[in-house]
Design goal:
The complex is a heterotrimer. In chain B, 29% of the residues lie in helices and 32% in strands. Chain B contains two helices and eight strands. The radius of gyration of chain B is 23 Å and the shape is elongated. Classes of the chains: A alpha/beta, B alpha/beta, C mainly alpha. At the B-C interface, helix 1 of B face helix 3, helix 6, helix 7 and helix 8 of C.
Chain lengths: 275, 156, 259
C-alpha cells in the first residue's frame, strides 16, 4: 500500500524545530523523521524534553520556530476541527496511562468509540472486548482503574489508544517503573501491534536495553540537540561520547552528574544568604 | 444500569423538591396567590391626607384583605391625594356609600385602607369613586392636638 | 521602587488570569448545545453537584430559619410586633440569606470538590489524554459541570429558603406561641413575588454562575501537582466567598435600592 522501500516515506517529519520553556531551550533547531510502518525511538536523559516532542507532534504545544508535518499536514497550521480529525488517527499512551478514573476498564476503552462513532452498544462491546483481548485484559473489563497495577493500567490505555484503529501510536516512557514481566509483555505488545496492524510507532524512552530490542531507528537527544541517530546497531557502535555515556550509563561524561552550580567549596564557605 | 437509574431518581427528586420549594415561596410565602390583576376592578378614593400609605398596601374590609392600592397621586386642583384601589372581583357588592379610611396596623405597623360598607342599595361600579373618606391619623398632629386641648382645659 | 514594581507585576498577573478565565468561560458556554444533546452527561453532574449538596443545604436552611425565628421573636416582642415574625423571617431568607448562605455552602461543598476533581484530572494527564483522543475536555468535562452548577444553585437556594421559613414557623408558632395564621398572612401581605422571590432567584442564578466558573477555572488552571491542586481548592472557596458577598451587595443595591 505504502512505499516502504524508499526512506522518503515519512509519516511524521519535524523540521528546524525550536521550542523553549521560559529561558531554557528545550529543542534547538532540530529535525527528525519518522518512517511509516516503523518503530522509531527518541532516547535521551530525563529532562531533555522527550515528552514535549510528543506533545508538539500531537499539536498540544506550539513551537517557537519550525514545523511538524503529520501525514503531509502541518500540525500547527491546521484549524481546530482538522486538528481533531487528525488526532482521531493518532493514539497516545501516556506515562501514567491517563485512564479516566470514574469509569471502568470497559468504559475507558469504549470511551473514544462512544464519543466519535455512532456504533450500536453491541458493536461497541464486541470491539472493546477484541481490543482488551489483544492486550490480554478481557477478564479485567469490569475493574475500576484504581484496582489495576501500573502495568495493567498501561495495557488498558494501550487498548484504548488502538480503539479507533489509528495509523500511529506515540508511547511516552512505556517501560518506566515496570517489573521485568510486565516490561516483557509491553515490549511484545508494541512490537506485535506494529507488525500486525501496520502501525507507525514513536517511542520515547530512556530505557536503553528494551528500546534497542524493538526500535528500527533511534534518535538520541541531549541538551536540545540530536547527538546521535541510526539503527540500534549503528547507535551501539557510535563513537560519540554522548551516545556512549548514555548507552553505558556512565555517571559522568558530557552529560554531567551535577546540575550546573557555582564552585562547591565557594558555596560551602559562603554565608548561605539566599539569592 | 441500576446505578444510573438510582442517579436519575435522585436527580429527579432534587429537581422536584427544588421546584416545590420555589413554588412554595411563590404561592405560600408571597402575595402572588392572593389575587391577580385580571379578576379585579378599580375604584378611586380621594383623601385629605393619605399618610404613609404606599402602592401595594393592603385594602381590607372587616379585617379581611380584599384588594390592594395600585397608585397614589396628588390632584393639583382639589389638593387631595387620589388613591386607586384594586378590589378582587369576588367582592363586587360594596355599597356606594362605603367609607374608606387609612388605618395603621398596630402602633408601628403598616398603613392600610379600611373599607366600611354603608347601607345603600346600589353598589360601587367599576371605576367608581368612594365619596366618604377619612384621612390617616398623623401621630404628631394627634399628639399636638391632645397637648393643646389639655393645656386649654388647665387654663379654665 | 520594589513596591511599585510588585504592584505592577501583580496587576499584570491578575489581568492575565482574568483573560484566561474569560476565554475559558467562553469556551465552556460554547459547549452548552452539545451537552444539551447528551443529557446523560448533565444528569450525572446534577447528581454529584446538586444531590450531594442537598443534605447540607436542607439542614442548614432549617437551622438558619429556626435561629431567625428565635432571634426575631425576642427583638420583635419588645415592640409588641411578634405577628410580623413571618415577614422578618421570610424577607431575610428570600432576599438575602437563602441565596447567599446556600451559595457559600455550595462553594464549600460542591465548588471545592469540582476544583479538586478537575485539578487531579489535569495532574494525572486525563485532560491531556482526552485532547489527544480528539475529545475536547472543556465540552466533555467542564461544560456539564458548569451547567449542573447553574441549574442546581437556584433549586438549592429555593429549598433553603422554603425549609428556613418552615423552621421559623416551627420555632415561632410551635414553641413561642406566635399565631400561625398571623405568621403566614403577614408574610403573604408583605412579600412581593417579583420584588422579593424573583430577585432572590436571580441572585442565586448569578451566584451559581460565578461559583461554578471560579471552581472549574481554578481546577483547570491549577498547577498539576498535589500542592498546586490543594492551593487551587483553597482559592476556590476564598474567592467564591468574596465574589458572592461582593456581588450580593451590588445586586441588593440594584434590586432593592429604590425602596
Amino acid at each position: 500500500m505504502h512505499n516502504r522501500v524508499s526512506g522518503q516515506d515519512n509519516l511524521v517529519s519535524v523540521r528546524d524545530l525550536t521550542f523553549s520553556r521560559g529561558n531554557k531551550k528545550i529543542f534547538d533547531d532540530i529535525s527528525l523523521d519518522f518512517q511509516r510502518g516503523k518503530v522509531t525511538a527518541i532516547m535521551g536523559p530525563s529532562g531533555t524534553g522527550k515528552t514535549t516532542m510528543l506533545k508538539l507532534i500531537g499539536g498540544q504545544l506550539f513551537p517557537d520556530k519550525g514545523s511538524v508535518f503529520v501525514d503531509g499536514q502541518n500540525v500547527h497550521k491546521l484549524r481546530r476541527a482538522d486538528l481533531y480529525n487528525l488526532r482521531k488517527r493518532l493514539g497516545m499512551l501516556f506515562q501514567s496511562g491517563a485512564l479516566l478514573t470514574d469509569m471502568s476498564v470497559f468504559d475507558n476503552v469504549a470511551f473514544p468509540l462512544r464519543e466519535h462513532t455512532q456504533l450500536t452498544e453491541s458493536m461497541i462491546r464486541t470491539l472493546v472486548l477484541m481490543k482488551l483481548q489483544a492486550v490480554g485484559l478481557r477478564g479485567a473489563s469490569q475493574l475500576m482503574p484504581n484496582e489495576l497495577s501500573g502495568g495493567m493500567a498501561r495495557r488498558v490505555a494501550l487498548a484504548r489508544a488502538i480503539a479507533l484503529d489509528p495509523m500511529m501510536i506515540m508511547y511516552d516512557e512505556p517501560f518506566t517503573g515496570q517489573d521485568p514481566i510486565s516490561m516483557g509483555v509491553l515490549v511484545h505488545l508494541i512490537k506485535s501491534l506494529n507488525n500486525i496492524l501496520g502501525l507507525t510507532s514513536i517511542i520515547v524512552s530512556h530505557d536503553v536495553h528494551d528500546t534497542m530490542a524493538i526500535a528500527d531507528y533511534i534518535y538520541v537527544l541531549s541538551g536540545g540537540k540530536i547527538v546521535g541517530q541510526g539503527s540500534p546497531k549503528e547507535i551501539q557502535e557510535s563513537d560519540s561520547e554522548w551516545v556512549q555515556q548514555f548507552m553505558t550509563g556512565a555517571a559522568d561524561g558530557p552529560v554531567h552528574f551535577h546540575y550546573p552550580a557555582k564552585d562547591y567549596i565557594d558555596d560551602l564557605m559562603s554565608s548561605g544568604k539566599r539569592y | 444500569m441500576q446505578h444510573t437509574r438510582n442517579q436519575d431518581t435522585l436527580v429527579g427528586l432534587l429537581v422536584a423538591s427544588g421546584i416545590a420549594g420555589l413554588f412554595f415561596l411563590a404561592m405560600h410565602v408571597s402575595n402572588l396567590s392572593s389575587f391577580s390583576d385580571e379578576d379585579s376592578y378599580t375604584i378611586t378614593a380621594k383623601f385629605e391626607n393619605s399618610g404613609g400609605l404606599k402602592v401595594k398596601s393592603p385594602v381590607s374590609a372587616a379585617g379581611v384583605k380584599i384588594g390592594k392600592v395600585t397608585s397614589i397621586s396628588f390632584d393639583p386642583k382639589t389638593y387631595k391625594s387620589v388613591v386607586q384601589l384594586s378590589i378582587n372581583s369576588k367582592y363586587s357588592t360594596l355599597p356606594d356609600d362605603t367609607t374608606a379610611s387609612v388605618f395603621t396596623a398596630g402602633l408601628l405597623g403598616e398603613q392600610y385602607v379600611n373599607l366600611e360598607p354603608g347601607g345603600s342599595e346600589t353598589y360601587l361600579k367599576k371605576g367608581g369613586e368612594i365619596e366618604i373618606t377619612q384621612s390617616a391619623i398623623i401621630l404628631e398632629k394627634a399628639i399636638g392636638q391632645f397637648l393643646f386641648k389639655s393645656a386649654a382645659e388647665e387654663k379654665k | 521602587m520594589d513596591f511599585i514594581e510588585g504592584l505592577g507585576a501583580s496587576t499584570r498577573i491578575s489581568f492575565n488570569k482574568l483573560g484566561r478565565g474569560t476565554h475559558f468561560l467562553v469556551q465552556t458556554i460554547s459547549g452548552i448545545m452539545s451537552v444539551l444533546l447528551r443529557p446523560r452527561l448533565l444528569t450525572k453532574q446534577l447528581y454529584s453537584v446538586g444531590v450531594m449538596s442537598f443534605l447540607i443545604i436542607t439542614i442548614s436552611g432549617l437551622f438558619v430559619g429556626m435561629v431567625l425565628g428565635l432571634q426575631g421573636y425576642y427583638t420583635l416582642s419588645d415592640f409588641g410586633a411578634e405577628e410580623t415574625l413571618g415577614v422578618m423571617v421570610a424577607a431575610s431568607l428570600v432576599r438575602e440569606l437563602g441565596p447567599v448562605v446556600s451559595a457559600l455552602l455550595f462553594a464549600g461543598r460542591a465548588g471545592s470538590a469540582l476544583t479538586a476533581e478537575i485539578g487531579l484530572m489535569k495532574a494525572t494527564e486525563q485532560l491531556s489524554g482526552m485532547e489527544m483522543m480528539a475529545i475536547d475536555p472543556i465540552k466533555r468535562i467542564i461544560t456539564p459541570r458548569f451547567l449542573a452548577g447553574l441549574i442546581s444553585m437556584p433549586l438549592l437556594a429555593g429549598i433553603f429558603s422554603a425549609v428556613g421559613i418552615i423552621g421559623g414557623q416551627i420555632v415561632g408558632s410551635g414553641l413561642l406561641g406566635v399565631d400561625e395564621g398571623a405568621y403566614w398572612s403577614q408574610m403573604q401581605a408583605s412579600i412581593d413575588f417579583y420584588d422579593d422571590i424573583v430577585n432572590g432567584v436571580i441572585k442565586s442564578i448569578v451566584f451559581g454562575f460565578v461559583t461554578s466558573w471560579i471552581a472549574l477555572f481554578e481546577g483547570y488552571d491549577a498547577i498539576p501537582t498535589s500542592e498546586g491542586v490543594s492551593r487551587a481548592t483553597t482559592r476556590t472557596v476564598v474567592n467564591s466567598a468574596f465574589t458572592i458577598l461582593g456581588l450580593d451587595f451590588i445586586l441588593t443595591a440594584l434590586m432593592f435600592g429604590d425602596h
